Amino acid sequence: MEGRMPRAKLAIVQKAFTAEFIKVDGIGTRLQVVARKADLLSFAITGLMEVHQDDEAWPLRDAADQIVSELESIIEEMQS
Asked: What does each C-alpha distance from 62 to 32, 41, 45, 69, 70 come to in angstroms?
């Protein structure tokens, strides 16, 4: 009976680790999607600025670029 306890505990730990890995991987994927959307937003803002000759939107574009940078940094940390 004693031999079964460590195996049972090991199975529980492995299952928990796998579930946590899947959760972290899912979060990383969602962050990548958000980063792509922020990058697209930055691109769109740049296009609007050029079309309308409007430099007042620079803070918005800079904010979008910073969001992309921060999200990419978080993703890298999660993957290491």
From this structure: 19, 11, 10, 10, 12
Rounded to whole angstroms, the Cα distance separating 78 from 80 reads 6
- Three-state secondary structure call for residue 63: helix
pLDDT tens profile 45-68? 888 888 888 888 888 889 989 999
**Cα–Cα distance, 16 to 8 (Å, whole number):** 12
Where in the sequence is the domain holding 51, given as residue range(s)? 4-79
Is the Cα torsion angle 59, 60, 65, 69 positive or negative in sign?
positive
- Report residue 31 as tokens: 């962050």
Kindly state the tokens that stand for 42: 């930055």
In this prediction the pTM is: 0.64
Q: Is the dihedral of CA 65, 71, 72, 77 positive or negative?
A: positive
